[in-house]
Amino acid sequence: MEQGLKQELETLHEQICAALADTNRLQLLYLLAQGPLRVTELTTELALPQSTVSRHLRVLRERGLVETDRQGPSVYYSLADKRVIEAIDLLRGILHDRVMRQARAVQELDG
Length: 111
Description:
Elements: H1 3-20, H2 23-32, E1 37-38, H3 39-46, H4 50-62, E2 66-71, E3 74-79, H5 83-110
Antiparallel strand pairs: 1-3, 2-3
């Protein structure tokens, strides 16, 4: 494998894939795809403690997936790049297709 590609894949894994490896962070990204939100709003939507939401947001911010915007005393979080949702949706489509193939295989065995 080309060394440049290998390095790029390692960086992709470290910077993006690792950040997506948590269901709560995926949910946060989908909520932020609807528009900027404050931690308190995200906490309410996910029914998680504020400390948990803040910790996940920190990971997403450090990886460049979310941005912050201070408006007076409030800090709003938003997606840094909407393509991350497109990428997750592609992966969800792959998962859906795989599950459907497995279900058809089971039906063929049973039928």
